[in-house]
Write a structure and sequence with these properties.
The chain is mainly α. It is built from 7 helices and no strands. This is Helix-turn-helix transcriptional regulator.
């Protein structure tokens, strides 16, 4: 809920107003402190431009994404996506039309994430195993 709200650029107050509740109530919904009734859930899904099922996202085995074993990783991802950098990266990424280009970017980011420390960073992207750079492409 929080992630989608931020992706749409809605404040807690704006969402609260649209839902007909206080911003404190939105905070409680986002933290999972308070439950939401079915009718309000449908209104929320409409405001956030998602299906109600989106708000009940689960892993393939049926476990809730918010299950304890996944909570820390989910919190890290949500926290990153809520940052200006996270939003900018995601907006730019989803605007890339080529699936091949998107897969290459994912491979690059995964390869970079496996580097041991800043001192081990390659001088050239071609030094990263599995990454081939296109000619005439400049990286900042």
């Amino acid at each position: 809920m929080k992630l989608r709200r931020k992706l749409l650029g809605l404040s807690q107050s704006a969402l609260a107003s649209a839902l007909g509740v206080t911003f404190q109530q939105v905070q409680k919904y986002e933290k999972g402190t308070n439950r939401m009734g079915a009718s309000r859930l449908l209104v929320l899904a409409n405001i956030l431009q998602v299906t109600p099922a989106f708000l009940f996202a689960q892993e393939e085995d049926g476990r809730s994404i918010g299950a304890p074993q996944n909570l820390i990783e989910t919190d890290k991802i949500t926290s990153f996506l809520a940052t200006r950098e996270g939003l900018e990266i995601n907006r730019a990424f989803v605007s890339i039309a080529s699936p091949k280009t998107r897969r290459s970017i994912v491979a690059l980011v995964v390869a970079l994430s496996h580097e041991k420390s800043a001192g081990d960073q390659p001088d050239d992207l071609q030094d990263i195993e599995g990454i081939a750079t296109a000619p005439n492409v400049q990286f900042l």
